[in-house]
Amino acid sequence: MKKAAIIALGLAAGAGAHAQTNVTIYGVADAALVGERGGSGGSGGSVTKLTSGAASASRIGFKGSEELGDGMSAFFTLETGAKIDTGELDAANTIFNRQAFVGLKTKAGSVAFGRQYTPYHLTLTGVADPFGTGYAGTSKNLLPDNGANVRASNAVTYASPVVRGANVELFYSAGEQSTLAAGRQFGGAVGYAQGPLTVRLAYNSKNSDVAATNTRHDLGRNVLLGANYDLKWIKLYGAYGVDKGYNSAPLGNPNNPYGGVKPTASTDGRDLLLGFSAPVGPGTLMFSTQRKDDRTAFNQDATEWGIGYLYALSKRSGLYAAYAHINNKNGAGYTVANNTESGTGNTGYNLGIRHTF
Question: Looking at the whole model, is its pTM more than 0.85?
């Protein structure tokens, strides 16, 4: 494992030695004091800990491009996650678990192959959520932005050029099982950005069948409409989602920290998020509220609100504080998460520092 990491770093460094290739090393170092408190009945207990990546997952990455002529260029990204609190990789037995892809860009758009983000996740983090799917107020608290909804391996993506503010993205991930459809995932997004308005409609479909065990499930399907509007003194955010089918909205924490009725992942739900970010004093104030409408027979609805404040020490370093609370109904088991953890209780806070390079 260590030898493989050293070889990969050496290859990236060697690529940078060639004049025709532009290689950049980048990363995030993020650590926070995280507190989590239990939900209804108090049986969830209390946890206080040091966490890596509460705002943005700590990572180191290498990206580069090479001009090939006639408007064509090759590009790549290799990105691994790390835990600042322990120095470990954030996923066992992996090197570049966050992103690993190579592609070609032309005047007609770009195509990439490898482990990549889904259009659904990019819509949520880049357009709809004022917290950017980080901090205690993250949209991950109620919206299904975990597992295969975030990124997938064996993926092929296409991104069109931006024409009059509009663009299209397509995504396909091969299940690579004996049955063609098993494990397969596909989706796409249509976006528009002009002036203060940004709006994006995304779709994601994943097949959770397992050919090796002859296990069959319904398709999990997610539709997400996200938008934001920048008034300069305040930026407004909104999202509406529809989740249907098996594994379309897996619980962040599948255990039951509350007692009582067992929480069950919704297979027919509606998601709503409203929020804003605004410059206040020397920093930025963030706020959002969310609602999960579970339309199954369990009717396990939930509502959430989160607030956060960012204080910039420089262009690359800053301090942050965030707090969120969830009201679970009828045994629902939603927990206050952050960028890297699913959480253990229905109340949580973060006090942290983040540095980017």
Answer: yes
